[in-house]
Write a structure and sequence with these properties.
The complex is a heterotrimer of chains A (354), B (617) and C (207). Chain A has 354 residues and is of the alpha+beta class. Chain A has helices at 4-20, 37-71, 89-118, 227-239, 250-261, 298-306, 326-336; strands spanning 127-134, 137-142, 147-150, 152-156, 160-167, 172-176, 180-185, 191-196, 201-207, 220-225. In chain A, helix 1 crosses helix 2 (37-71), helix 2 (37-71) runs antiparallel to helix 3 (89-118) and helix 5 (250-261) packs across helix 7. The longest helix of chain A is centred in the N-terminal third of the chain and has 35 residues, at 37-71. Chain B has one domain (23-230, 237-553, 602-616): Cytochrome c oxidase-like, subunit I domain (Cytochrome C Oxidase, Chain A), CATH 1.20.210. Chain C has one domain: Cytochrome c oxidase, subunit III, four-helix bundle (Four Helix Bundle (Hemerythrin (Met), subunit A)), CATH 1.20.120. Chain C has helices at 21-51, 61-64, 67-92, 96-128, 136-166, 176-206. Chains in contact: A-B, B-C. Chain A: Belongs to the cytochrome c oxidase subunit 2 family. Chain A: Its cofactor is Cu cation. Chain A: Its EC number is 7.1.1.9.
Chain lengths: 354, 617, 207
């Protein structure tokens, strides 16, 4: 689709988008500046109908305007009775056939792309990530690698990465606009699609299916790094042993004890574990955002531990653990903020999209 | 009879008259009052939503309340504002347009109205009892089945009750049009508004039962522990989506086709020209309705149905653009060569053409399944369906109000105020919704309580909210106009627009029996035809004779009240055994009233020839 | 009442049920209503088909269904449809007594059907522990078959109401449409049962 569609794309981009909106949104969130295979395919089919239909709209507008100017009631002929035209077969045929042709122009690539995107022949040879949608966070299990993360998912650039999605509660929808269109995360069946990112960067993901009070706070990030960096990250994550984490302060050590004492690990795993009642905290300190939406600071984390309801209404953590006072929460926070098993973080995602 | 009612003019008498009326004209007004009230309520909810979204991370209302707002806004506007207002217009106009003295089942007509009203009240009582429904107007399971409290229960029962009423209305219109057209009023001479009434009645008939079943399943899951949508027991939540959209997509056409009918009447009247391509218009309407049943899964492209299903539904959806395009061009050609008067009714109609064309344009865009992976559940879709529903249906309703106000309320709405309302609303509408296309593409999903800072969504949302204020102002001016015209304007003359169709041939105000003698229809645009031939009025098809009229009855009100009470019984039997009193009491009341209706002979009464002649003098 | 609708053999029109506008309206209205009912049952059938294998460890369709009882039920309902045809035949001949007799038989057959259905449900619940709540299949089965049973029950109430109400006053143009619409409705219930028999029981036994 580089030929004629490319030309249209250039024209359109220069003409409309860049003029009407000098920016088309944040470049790591917008669907108008695709940086992945799926998003690119969708974008092609955003442009094509827009161009065709704008042309139709133009014709309608011209006809309407001319009709109004020419045939509006004029002085001196208020009582003029126009000819009562029944219809016109030629005209009516024209505006039946031309739309059909225009629609065929849209329908053919739609069907082609639809099947193209659904082709999953190489799934077995690719990196597979199991995605679990939860109210209101995302869990990622790298199949065959013994790695689990939550909220941030690291993938290599230029490779197809398959996401196999299932919900643990209500329906969610997995959407990273800049990389690919969305796919629903249903509770009863696994839905699969792939993301192939063209450029390194941090891409913002959102839940796009209404899932409860904190639906709008269910953001996640896709961190795209080079293949070497990704391999390094995998190795670091696999070598991580929660028992041997070097903590740089007494407070943090106390925090670790309190983490045990309050039985936090009943829900939150640190290190590779099938436990996924709450987010896995292995690389917590490397997260882009706290709880997906807040600044990653210790103060915010303390706030969260003491009363998560204030940050995410309706979340499942509220009330599921004994009350923690601010002092203890600060210690736990100190501990969690030191969980950074890998050198590879969002800083390694080049391209300036942070 | 008529003189007796004229004498008892106290408030109580008027109230009793309306509670027991089976007259289609009064029921039409009741629908307009009820639907208008809910329209204002839904509009208020919309404004609250937009205020919440005026700036990033706003805390004007809480997340839970916000979800209740969006749910109630959608549900109210679709089921309790747009539908009943259109049903009201149909009731008020359609029987006159086809030359009938009433609808086929006047009693059922009243029952349909009261069921709608009590359903709407039921839904909104939830605001007062602590929790309104909060699972979206689409109520997707399992969010809807697991939503705590009684909110969604109100949604289920409110819609179930009003849905039954709508179904009755649909059947009633169908029988009326098939059996009760005036002599000479063949199908292909019926005005377009009556045609669309007929077609959407078919849609109601075949679409609403799917919703009924869906609501039953939801109700059983929530109240009686069944497992339709419970994955742990083998349930499947996608079933709800299918049932909902098998109903939901035709519902869109139930709303827009009558608006198409309205515009067809208005363009012809104010261009002083016969509707261009009448036959094509009729068949395009039927085709749209037919295709409307084949495309429901285009609401589900991202569900994971696979490329085959997605492709089929994408192409089928695009096909609807063809008959819709035919209509747009036929309207343009109706204007072409005419003698066009631009007044308020016409302004709304003219504004509809570009607005709706944009909605149709984005319709093709969202039908393109691969692109819909990006549009779906974002503000792009919000923008699309508001362009269709507001730019099509609401513009249509407002145009119809200006056009038929003299017929329904015996007043002409003030032109100056009408134009003010139009421009405020029209500008506000485009300000609110045009930018939302881009918000969606820039990554803003729908139903977001807050959008975050620094995500590039601030300006668009701000503009959108400002637009909403303009729309509000427009609605207020229109409302003022309604009261102003009632108190300050004199009675409207018969046929103020130099009309073409039968409803303008009846005297003003319309007698309660509509036509003293049924008219003889000799062609399309029956009244215009007679005017052009110099007769000025329709020839009667029968001599003056006795007219059979139905008796009024309080039973429709009581039956609906019974179901209303039983609804509370259903909702609260999960938490309190006392609720069974309401459940059985309400059901018993409804069933006893139905039995009375069935067993008590009601032959109606006759207006005698002598009475008619006396009135004429 | 200035207009007397009661009938005698001389004034009897050929189709008393459609002789008045009200009669025609009722007749057509019921047909449309049945169109809506078709969609209602189609939706229920669709739901059932989607969930019939979701037994959640409970009994499957093969283990559950016994065709003997269902065959008896089918015969009862089919026969009742036939007897209601006889009743309508006698209505058109203005033989009120015979019409009432055949309608009575129709009602009795309907009661027999309903009794069998109640026994069937009782049997499933007590022998197999198969309830409305035990699985998605259970919910779908009881809802589909129960909706049909509810329609039969409603039909029986309707029938007794019009039979008792009109027992003493014979046939006239006012009540003839009522009998006729009932008969139409009853046929519809019968047709739905044929589909239930095929789709639920036969296909459940075979598949």
């Amino acid at each position: 689709m580089k030929g004629w569609m490319g030309k249209i794309k250039v024209l359109f981009l220069m003409g409309l988008v860049s003029l009407v909106l000098s920016a088309c949104g944040k470049e790591n969130l917008t669907a108008l500046d695709p940086k992945g295979y799926g998003a690119e395919k969708s974008f092609d089919l955003i442009i094509l109908p827009t161009v065709i239909m704008s042309f139709v709209l133009l014709i309608v507008m011209v006809l309407l305007t001319v009709a109004l100017i020419k045939f509006r009631k004029k002085k001196g002929r208020e009582d003029f009775i126009p000819k009562q035209v029944e219809g016109n077969h030629t005209l009516e045929t024209v505006w039946t056939v031309i739309p059909i042709l225009l629609l065929i122009i849209i329908a053919v690539p739609t069907v082609m792309y639809e099947f193209n995107l659904a082709d999953e022949a190489d799934a077995a040879d690719s990196l597979n990530v199991e995605v679990t949608g939860n109210q209101y966070w995302w869990h990622f299990n790298y199949e065959g690698l013994d790695i689990q993360t939550s909220q941030d998912v690291y993938i290599p650039v230029g490779e197809k990465v398959y996401f196999n999605m299932l919900s643990s509660d209500v329906i969610h929808s997995f959407w990273v606009p800049t990389l690919a269109g969305k796919l629903d995360v249903n509770p009863e069946n696994v839905n699969t699609f792939y993301i192939e990112a063209y450029e390194e960067g941090v891409y913002w993901g959102k839940c796009a299916e209404f899932c409860g009070p904190s639906h709008s706070l269910m953001d996640f990030k896709v961190v795209v790094v080079s293949q070497e960096e990704f391999d390094q990250w995998v190795a670091d994550m696999q070598n991580f042993d929660p028992e041997t984490v070097e903590l740089d302060s007494e407070v943090a050590v106390e925090g670790r004890e309190l983490f045990d004492q309050y039985n936090c690990m009943a829900c939150h795993a640190i290190g590779s574990s099938p436990v996924a009642v709450g987010p896995n905290l292995t690389n917590f300190a490397d997260r882009t955002k706290l709880a997906g939406v807040e600044e990653m600071t210790k103060d915010k984390l303390v706030e969260w531990i003491v009363n998560p309801e204030l940050i995410k209404p309706g979340n499942k953590m509220t009330g599921a653990y004994p009350k923690i006072n601010e002092e203890d929460a600060a210690k736990i926070a100190e501990y969690l903020m030191q969980l950074s098993p890998s050198e590879i973080t969002i800083e390694n995602a080049d391209g300036g999209l942070k | 009879m008529s003189s007796a009612t004229a004498q008892r003019n106290s408030f109580a008498a008027v109230l009793w008259d309306y509670l027991t009326t089976v007259d289609h004209k009064k029921i039409g007004k009741l629908y307009l009052y009820g639907g208008g009230f809910f329209f204002l309520l839904g509009g208020l909810e919309a404004v609250i939503i937009r205020i919440q979204l005026i700036k990033p991370e706003n805390d004007f209302i809480s997340a839970g309340l916000y979800n209740e707002m969006i749910t109630m806004h959608g549900t109210t506007m679709i089921f309790f504002a747009a539908m009943p207002i259109l049903l009201g217009l149909m009731n008020a106009v359609m029987p006159l347009q086809i030359g009938a003295r009433d609808v086929a089942f006047p009693f059922v007509n009243a029952l349909g109205f009261w069921l709608f009203l009590f359903g709407g009240i039921m839904l909104n009582v939830s605001w007062l009892t602590g929790a309104a429904p909060d699972a979206g107007w689409t109520a997707y399971a399992p969010l809807s089945t697991t939503s705590p409290g009684h909110g969604v229960d109100y949604y289920v029962l409110g819609l179930q009750i009003s849905g039954a009423g709508t179904l009755m209305g649909g059947i009633n219109f169908l029988v009326t049009i098939v059996n009760m057209r005036a002599p000479g009023m063949t199908y292909m001479r019926m005005p377009l508004f009556s045609w669309t009434t007929f077609v959407i009645s078919v849609l109601i008939l075949f679409a609403f039962p799917a919703l009924t079943v869906g609501l039953f399943l939801l109700m059983f899951d929530r109240m009686f522990d069944s497992a339709f949508f419970d994955v742990a027991l083998g349930g499947n939540s996608i079933i709800w989506q299918h049932l909902f959209w098998i109903f939901g997509h035709p519902e869109v056409y139930i709303l827009i086709l009558p608006a198409f009918g309205i515009f067809s009447e208005i363009f012809a009247t104010f261009s002083k020209k016969r509707l261009f391509g009448y036959t094509a218009m009729v068949f395009a309407t039927i085709l749209i309705a037919f295709l409307g049943f084949m495309v429901w899964a285009h609401h589900m492209f991202t569900v994971g149905m696979g490329p085959v299903a997605n492709s089929i539904f994408a192409v089928a959806t695009m096909a609807i653009a063809v008959p819709t395009g035919i209509k747009i061009f036929n309207w343009l050609l109706t204007l072409w060569g005419g003698n066009i008067t631009i007044n308020s009714a016409m302004l709304w109609s003219l504004a509809f053409i570009p607005s709706f064309t944009i909605g149709g344009m984005t319709g093709i865009m969202v039908a393109t399944s691969v692109a819909d992976y990006q549009y779906h559940d974002t503000y792009f879709v919000i923008a699309h369906f508001h362009y269709v529903i507001v730019g099509g249906v609401v513009f249509g309703i407002l145009a119809a109000c200006h056009y038929w106000w003299p017929l329904m309320f015996n007043r002409i709405l003030n032109e100056k105020l009408g134009k003010w309302a139009f421009w405020l609303f029209f500008i506000g509408f485009h300000l609110t919704f045009f930018i939302q296309h881009f918000l969606g593409l820039m990554g803003m999903p729908r139903r977001y309580w807050v959008f975050l800072e620094d995500q590039g969504l601030d300006l668009g949302n701000f503009i959108s909210t400002i637009g909403a204020f303009f729309m509000t102002a427009g609605v207020i001016v229109f409302l003022y106009n309604a009261f102003y015209s009632w108190f300050k304007q004199g009675p409207a003359p018969q046929d103020p627009w130099d009309g073409r169709t039968l409803e303008w041939a009846v005297e003003s105000p319309t007698p309660y029996y509509n036509f003293k003698q049924l008219p003889l229809v000799r062609g399309l645009d029956a009244l215009w035809l007679e005017k052009m031939e110099g007769n000025g009025k329709l020839a009667p098809a029968e001599p003056v004779g006795d007219i059979h009229m139905p008796n009024g009855s309080i039973l429709p009100f009581l039956i609906s009240l019974g179901f209303f009470i039983a609804g509370f019984g259903f909702i609260y039997q999960t938490t309190s055994d006392l609720a069974y009193i309401l459940l059985y009491g309400g059901m018993g009341m409804a069933l006893v009233c139905m039995l009375i209706r069935s067993l008590k002979d009601d032959h109606g009464y006759h207006i005698t020839k002598e009475e008619l002649e006396k009135e004429a003098r | 009442m200035s207009h007397d609708h009661s009938l005698n053999p001389e004034t009897m029109p050929q189709h008393p049920e459609k002789a008045t506008l009200e009669g025609k309206n009722k007749f057509l209205g019921l047909w449309f209503f049945l169109g809506g009912e078709t969609v209602l049952f189609a939706s229920l059938f669709g739901t059932y088909l989607a969930l019939k294998n979701s037994t959640a460890g409970g009994p499957t369709t093969q283990e559950l269904y016994g065709l003997e009882l269902v065959f008896v039920m089918t015969m009862l309902l089919l026969t009742s449809s036939l007897t209601s045809v006889y009743a309508m035949y006698h209505m058109k001949n203005n033989d009120f007594k015979k019409m009432q007799l055949w309608l009575g038989i129709t009602g009795l057959l309907g009661i027999g059907f309903l009794a069998c259905e109640i026994y069937e449900f009782y049997h499933y619940i007590h022998e197999y522990g198969f309830t409305f709540r035990s699985s998605a299949f259970g919910s779908a089965f009881y809802t589909l078959v129960g909706f049909h049973g509810g329609h039969v029950l409603f039909g029986l109430c309707w029938l007794s109401a019009i039979m008792i109400r009109n027992a003493k006053r014979g046939l006239n143009l006012y009540n003839a449409p009522k009998f006729n619409t009932f008969s139409l409705y009853w046929h519809f219930i019968d047709v739905v049962w044929v589909f239930i028999f095929t789709v639920v029981y036969l296909m459940g036994k075979v598949a």
